Amino acid sequence: MSSPPPNYPIPTGLHPIPPSNLDLRPDSAIDQTLLHPLPISSSSKNIWFFWHAGYPSLHPYTRRNIRAWHRRLAPHGWVIRVLDLAPNSPLNISNYLDVSDPQLFPAAFRDGTIGGAYALQHASDLVRWPLLLRYGGVYADVGLLQIGDLDRLWSATVGSAGSRFEVLAYDDGGGVGRGLCNYFLGSGKGNELFARCQRLLVELWEGRTSTEGMHASPLLKGVPLLEGTFSFEEEEGKAVIGHEEARRMLSDYIVQGQVMTLVMNLVDVEGGWDGPGYVKEHVYGIEFMVGAQLINELTAWDGGLAFRLMSLEMPREGEGESEEQKRAREIVETILRKSFGFKLAHGMILKAYKHTLGSLWRENEGSDDVVGTYAHWLRYAMVYWTQDEIPSPVEYKGNEPYKIGPMLREE
Hints:
This is Capsule polysaccharide biosynthesis protein. The chain is an alpha/beta fold.
């Protein structure tokens, strides 16, 4: 990364990372390491990403995301891998998992027949739990910016033999609804929550080539449809998508999240599973809105505004601060202090908002990496500084399960 200009202030609540704890080689050297990662070992310190066409085809801003993960975590023994479906690629998923195994992958994945507008997103959904179950570690979307000290949090939870926590994730259920976001999932090998989720997800895919209509499966009975933080009404051709239809579409799109909600809220005496009890005891949930969506909340989900603010140049020495610069500074300082990460939004959300910060960084190549801008200040901080504290977990409360009985029995 470029050296910072002198007016990159370090916010309170953060401290510099010693250079010896960072991999500060040039980008080209980092890329070579990412393309040729170390072999699998007995360690669960694995960071898993997936991009169907391979790391070299990633958009530049997401390559910067992944390099930042590597620079921070590799010196602590983590190995970052970006798996793919590219023919003859050494990082092809088939070199890590048996893609012919029907317990790991549904027929649509095995045959390459996943369809629908979000086929690639659903393919990436289907590799997450099999990787974690076999190897352990953290699965993250390529659009997730890591801010907090993941190695410290891991060492205090999943990575500690004395910890009661077995799962790391962002929680979007508020502690009562018990729901997890699928863009960041961490566990050791063979985790029993994720093992049950895997079985249910593969069962839901049986005989299907897309997730359309999965929300209505009897196996998900009792799981509320997802609510967006936005209005989803829009014109699609000549049809108007109303609120309830939008909830169904969103629930199909994030069916992996619906699966986790069902399993977390399942009591299956025959199968020896008490979902609410397991979650309360073993899931370290980070509140997701502050934890990973705060830029969106601070800009009222206005992607154009977020992009404009992050693209502003910071005041030079001796210059005053405009109102927009003040707002941009407060956003960067707030997320660096409070957020464990930031999930750049793409996918179905673009039906509602047309633009997000992530989509505009994609369209305006290099705009997230201009020295002297608030975006670059954020990117610099993600590599060179870390938070003084790790985030507190959500306190899970008791509530009635959504389902009582065997997981795969239709109600």
